[in-house]
UniProtKB/TrEMBL annotation:
GO terms for biological process: methylation. PANTHER family: HEMK METHYLTRANSFERASE (PTHR18895), MTRF1L RELEASE FACTOR GLUTAMINE METHYLTRANSFERASE (PTHR18895:SF74). It comes from Baekduia soli. Residues 11-82 form the Release factor glutamine methyltransferase N-terminal domain. NCBIfam families: hemK_fam, RF_mod_PrmC. Keywords: Methyltransferase, S-adenosyl-L-methionine, Transferase. This is Release factor glutamine methyltransferase. S-adenosyl-L-methionine binds at residues 124-128, 147, 189. Belongs to the protein N5-glutamine methyltransferase family. PrmC subfamily. It catalyses: L-glutaminyl-[peptide chain release factor] + S-adenosyl-L-methionine = N(5)-methyl-L-glutaminyl-[peptide chain release factor] + S-adenosyl-L-homocysteine + H(+). One of its GO terms (molecular function) is peptide chain release factor N(5)-glutamine methyltransferase activity. Substrate binds at residues 189-192. Residues 104-197 form the Methyltransferase small domain.
Amino acid sequence: MTIGAGVPVRDALDSALVALQGAGVDSPRLDAEVLLAHALGVDRAALWLHPEREVTGAATRWFRDAVRRRAVGREPVAYLTGRRGFRHLDLEVDPRVLIPRPETEHLVEALLDLPHGVAVHDVGTGSGAIALALKDERPDLRVGASDVSPGALAVAHANARRLGIDVAFTEGDLLDGVDGGDLHAVVSNPPYVAEGERAALPRDVAAHEPGLALFAGAEGLGVIRPLVTQSAGTAARVLALEVGAGQAPVVRGLVAAAGFDDVTVIRDLAGIERVVVGRR
C-alpha cells in the first residue's frame, strides 16, 4: 500500500481497501475506516463527513504500518488500536486478553435483573469486560472478578482505574479463593474451543489471541465442567455461561444436573445458542 504525504481521506481509504481486499481480510472497508479514524483521532463518521481531509505526518506513517500488519500478519484491529467497545464502555485491550465480542454482551443483559445489592463473580475476566459492564449498568451490585492470568488481570485493573469503576479483582483459577457463601451469581465467558478446532479458527484469532482464553480440551468443556461443579458448591442462585456453537444442549444438561434446574438458553444475533443461564 502506498500512501504519500497529504493524501485525502478518501484516497487513503481506497488504497488501504485494495491492500486489505487483496490479502483476503473479511471486513476490509470497516477495518480501513477504524484504523484511519484511530490514526487521525476522530470517529468514523468524521471520515464520511470530511473525505477531503488530508492524512499527513505521523498519522500517515501509523496508518500505513497498521494496514500492513493487518493485511500481512492478520493482527486484529482491536490490538492495533488498543481499543474495543463493549456495551457502553471503551476498553483497552492487548494480546494478553481475549478481544470482547458482541455476543458476550448477552451475558451482561441476562444479569441486569438481579436483586438489588447482591454479589456477582466473573470467572476468567480477561479485560474485565463483563464485570465492568455489570458494575457500570448496575452500580448497586457487588462485583468481583478473577483470572488465572496475571497479564489479563493487569489489563482489567487498568480498565477499571481508567473508567473509574469499582470491581474487586483477584488472581485465581475458577472460583478458588472466592467467598462462595456470599455469592448470588456466577458469570463466565470461559475457554470453550475444542483442541481439534484449532486449525479451523481464523488466523486473526489462532495466531494472536491468548490460547489460555480459547482452548478447553478435546470437547471444549474442560473449563465449563469444573466451573459448573464449583458453582454448585457455592450459595449462588444464578449461573450464566457463554458457550460455543453446538455446546448449549450439553451445557444445559450439566447446569441442570448441578442443581440449577431452571435453565434458559439465549441465542445471539446470528441465531446461535450462545448463553446458558441456570437458576435455583
